[in-house]
Amino acid sequence: MAAHDLNGALHALGTYLELASAAADAAQLGERLEMARECLARCRQISATLQSFDQLGGPTSSFDLRPVCSDAAARHAAGLQLPPDPLRVHTDRAALEATLDALLHRARRAASGHIALTLAVAEGGATLVIEDDGPAPALGGRDRVDPFAADAPSGLGRGLEMLLTRAFLEGAGASLHISRSALGGGRVALDLPGAP
To answer: Which helix (H) or strand (E) holds 128?
Structure first.
């Protein structure tokens, strides 16, 4: 999957650079260079996601999720709702941050313009919810789906971001479900066990 994602972005980058070199005028050159910049940004995101895999399996600790969510929302220009009181979990913080970045990046790519991150108290832990206003996911007639289940609709658990997410879930004892958002697009709920 990672090789496919990276190869596609690199191929597009090369194509736009070749087209830029053959541009007929400054406007056409600018347009093609802008497309090349977007491809380069995608290559950088893929590289950052791959580097995030190095963070998996690190030390676990107990920490308040609110600063983690605030920082992630700021990095991805997402709306944010937090509970007033600290919400502590016990997990690999760096791996959680990388996973949250991957899920927010995926939401940003799907969104028409708006993504939101909500942190809520859940029975026995916390729930992180990421919503976007892009196209609604295909859920095969169900209200919510575990994207990694054997009977999940094809495509939901695919992609580099979901590969990273799955690795984190397995190590953290967490779960993930995808449903439709009130914003009109996708809703991803990441359930984390609370701190002991």
So the answer is: strand 125-132
H/E run at residue 33: helix 26-52
Please tell me the distance from the alpha carbon of residue 132 to that of residue 186, in angstroms, as a whole number: 6
Nearest-angstrom CA–CA distance, 80 and 78 = 6
The answer to whether the CB of 101 falls within 8 A of the CB of 75 is yes
Contact by Cβ (8 Å): 139, 179: yes
Round to whole Å and give the CA distance between 82 and 71. 12
Place of tokens 């600290």: 86
Length of the chain: 196
Residues 119, 166: Cα–Cα separation, whole Å = 20
Phi and psi based region of residue 146 (left: phi greater than 0; alpha: psi -120 to 50; beta: remaining): beta
Q: Tens of pLDDT along 52-78?
A: 566 566 778 899 999 999 999 999 999
Query: If DSSP codes are grouped into helix, strand and coil, which group holds residue 4?
Result: helix
Residue 140 dihedral angles phi and psi, to the nearest 5°: 60, 35
Decide the pairing of beta strands 125-132 and 79-81: unpaired
pTM of the model as a whole: 0.72
